Amino acid sequence: MKKIGLFYSFNSKKTAKIAGIIHNNFTGDDVQLVNVDEIKKSNFPDFDNMIVGVPTWFDGELPNYWDELMPALEDIDFTGKKIAIFGLGDQKGYPENFCDAIGIMALFFEEKGAQIVGKQPLTGYTFETSKAVRNNDFFGLPLDQENQSRLTAGRIENWVVLLKTEFN
Questions:
Q1: Which residues, including other chains, have CB under 8 Å from residue 38's CB and lie 6 or more apart?
Q2: Is the dihedral of CA 54, 115, 141, 155 positive or negative?
Q3: Which CATH number applies to 4-166: 1.25.40.10, 2.30.30.30, 3.40.50.360, 3.40.50.1370?
Q4: Can you tell me the distance from the alpha carbon of 141 to that of 75, in angstroms, rounded to the nearest whole number?
Q5: I need a surface site. Which of 93, 123, 136, 164 has the fewest CB within 10 A?
Q6: Sorting pLDDT into bands at 50, 70 and 90, what band is 1?
Q7: If you average pLDDT over residues 67-92, what whole number do you get?
Q8: Which of 53, 48, 42 is nearest to 9 (CA)?
């Protein structure tokens, strides 16, 4: 398997915890943890496969660290790159924009030529709308630590199995 970059903010505690679980599920594979608070755009081409962690803030917004980094990535061609996205959201507190950040990131990377992998079915989630949904699937792995934390470990385990096949 090609080298994988796992991109997330080391300072975002819940996202960092999930990234650690994902990393542990890739036992034996070359997965490099990358702090988006400190990354340079020149680091992105180092990886053919990427996992991006992004929580949805407030009413469907990206966190500041991703929002500020994305303009620097505008001129990078991600053609040939495979990107999987996981995100955190709250189905009950914010049902009208559950995990919107996954969709925002997926569209951004698609427009830059990347292939989005790791799509997940809508089954098991209850929300009104989400930018993370296309053709009755999520663009990536949505996690609700506020309301469904007991399902997180199993969802991650199944997702990583899927990614291992899609990243090859």
A1: none
A2: negative
A3: 3.40.50.360
A4: 27
A5: 123
A6: low
A7: 95
A8: 53
